[in-house]
Q: What sequence folds into this?
């Protein structure tokens, strides 16, 4: 027996999504007491799903594909047109393996050491300034660290502008008008930069370490052929850009230390630091949802899906689902002491297995950057948090504290 899917009435609800942001899906799920509903977004029928089981369904590659799922406006700002995010099947596997090969213990250990060094440099810089904005400083710091780690040359003269451009690409994903245009232009400039780097490596003008992302992207082959220059540039940027996006989590971590100061002294062990980083990824809003397209007709939980149906999976909702999390609205890193990860119940960067599906390959990079930032902020830096607007606008996607977390009277501890 099939059952009827709850429906949102009306011609189109894009306006509601844009004016309700992160709250749009959760509000309707609770109003309708459901894990699934049908609506119309951007003129198309859309099936919206939430919950752990829906996340598992979303990652079933026999049922869903990604090609055709990602709006071109998101590709032209955030992800790049035609990169790994849009591929399916064997093509995706081969491309994805290239990203996974960057994440060895040795390479990740190197990244941690680089991020630590960059924080020491940044601490002195912030001390000289006296007052600084954590979000902006983190974007620049992470870009420096990632350029060292990936083998991309970056001069002191360009680091702030490049970081600004990459930040604009991320920020534009959910923006319209000027915010979108600024991000689109920033992507064009940044892809040109990445193309120059790949070309210089291929022509032997730039030496890079084997195993570094720039080297891997420059020489990766598919069916015997090097990636075309533009695609290699997009994929190299698919390593650097999302790491810069971690600046959002770093400023949320700063906010957490401010709002829940009892944690400052509790972060002694590596495990405590790791729990804290994970709770920051769970608690604060980042990835709202992702889309996919049904590959065939099938039935799930009594509901009928038709080939070509577009679905939207609510990742934000899973991280705060009261069926999965005790008191989800409380910030409590200790919850990760006995948390059992089943790949679909904690999904700040997607779910499933990163080797096969589309789950983010960059979770270890993300966690390392958050951990080392929190270690530095709590262990090596003294600062005050002046009066400012720290509210998180839940309508804006992606969001961050309004003031971007201003710090004052900054001092490096002796
Ligand atoms: C994919 C989030 C950091 C590289 C994804 C996806 C999400 C995500 C939601 C899509 C999952 C899916 O399509 O099923 C984030 C967030 C980050 C972050 C919120 C931190 C702020 C990173 C880092 C890297 C990275 C640091 C690289 C070092 C990628 C790549 C993909 C991806 C290459 C595409 C994977 C694929 O399509 O197979 N990320 N990510 N991400 N992420 Fe991340
Ligand atoms: C990255 O740079 O790849 C990391 C961030 C990926 C998360 C996706 C967040 C999308 C936010 C806006 C989508 C709004 C579409 C209306």
A:
């Amino acid at each position: 027996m099939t059952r009827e899917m709850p429906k949102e009435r009306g011609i189109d609800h894009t306006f509601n999504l844009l004016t309700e942001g992160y709250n749009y899906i959760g509000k309707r799920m609770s109003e309708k007491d459901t894990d699934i509903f049908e609506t119309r977004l951007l003129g198309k029928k859309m099936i919206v799903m939430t919950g752990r089981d829906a996340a598992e369904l979303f990652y079933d590659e026999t049922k869903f594909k990604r090609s055709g799922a990602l709006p071109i406006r998101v590709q032209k700002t955030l992800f790049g047109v035609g990169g790994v995010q849009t591929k399916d099947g064997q093509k995706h596997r081969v491309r994805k393996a290239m990203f996974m090969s960057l994440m060895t213990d040795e390479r990740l250990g190197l990244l941690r050491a680089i991020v630590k060094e960059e924080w020491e440099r940044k601490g002195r810089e912030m001390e000289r300034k006296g007052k600084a904005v954590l979000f902006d400083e983190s974007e620049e710091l992470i870009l420096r660290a990632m350029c060292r780690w990936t083998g991309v040359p970056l001069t002191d003269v360009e680091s702030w502008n490049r970081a600004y451009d990459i930040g604009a690409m991320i920020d534009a994903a959910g923006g319209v008008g000027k915010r979108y245009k600024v991000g689109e232009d920033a992507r064009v400039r940044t892809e040109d930069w990445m193309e120059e780097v790949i070309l210089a490596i291929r022509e032997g003008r730039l030496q890079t370490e084997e195993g570094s992302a720039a080297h891997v992207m420059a020489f990766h082959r598919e069916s015997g052929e090097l990636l075309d220059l533009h695609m290699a540039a997009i994929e190299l940027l698919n390593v650097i850009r999302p790491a810069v996006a971690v600046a959002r989590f770093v400023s949320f971590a700063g906010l957490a230390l401010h709002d829940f100061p009892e944690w400052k002294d509790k972060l002694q062990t590596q495990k405590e630091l790791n729990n804290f980083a994970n709770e920051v990824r769970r608690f604060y809003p980042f990835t709202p949802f992702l889309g996919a397209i049904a590959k065939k007709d099938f039935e799930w939980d009594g509901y009928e899906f038709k080939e070509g149906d577009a679905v939207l999976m609510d990742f934000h909702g899973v991280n705060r689902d009261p069926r999965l999390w005790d008191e989800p609205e409380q910030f409590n890193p200790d919850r990760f002491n006995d948390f059992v990860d089943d790949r679909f119940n904690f999904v700040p960067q997607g779910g499933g297995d990163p080797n096969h599906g589309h789950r983010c390959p960059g979770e270890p990079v993300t966690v390392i950057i958050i951990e080392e930032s929190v270690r530095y902020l709590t262990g090596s830096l003294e600062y005050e948090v002046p009066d400012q607007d720290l509210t998180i606008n839940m309508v804006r996607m992606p969001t961050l504290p309004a003031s971007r977390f201003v710090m004052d009277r900054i001092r490096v501890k002796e």
Observations:
- The chain has a mean pLDDT of 97.
- The pocket of myristic acid (ligand 2) is lined by residues 78, 170, 173-174, 241-242, 245, 287-288, 397-398 (CB under 6 Å).
- Residues 229-259 form the longest helix (31 residues).
